[in-house]
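Look over this record as teaching material.
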Amino acid sequence: MCSSTHLRFVEVTESTLEFTWVPPNATVTGHRVMYGQGEATEQLIPSPDPGNRSALIEGLLPGVMYKVEIITIGFYRESAPLVGYNTTGEYMACEIAIASNDVTVNSIRITWPAAAGAVDTYSISLNPGDGDNPTGSVNSGAAREYNFTGLTAGTLYTISVTTVS
């Protein structure tokens, strides 16, 4: 059986790959979609119906290149895989909020929205790392806020909040 052709990724997000293909001019009884990092070892369940020409893989990691294989199944044979590669989108950073009443001469209080997906803790850091508490950790169930103290007035600081799962 001939392979499907024209694999095209139509929508890519940080956790999904959606793609289309053109099946061969033959009787198709099904498709097997395989995917994975490096090698395509995971099978998309449920498999696309014989008449489908598209599929959506969900639950992927952000910023990772995935290999996708589409195997077309006929009555007595399977095709060689149609192979494509694509990278999921990078995780979009959220905005850290700082209200004017959260800033003093030597301290700052930050808040942030909940991250999508499973999060155990948030790792917080300040650069340059001076002050009393330049790094910290906040459990996912706690209030999403952190106070930096002992800072130097007139210093430009970079603050980051990173999820840890």
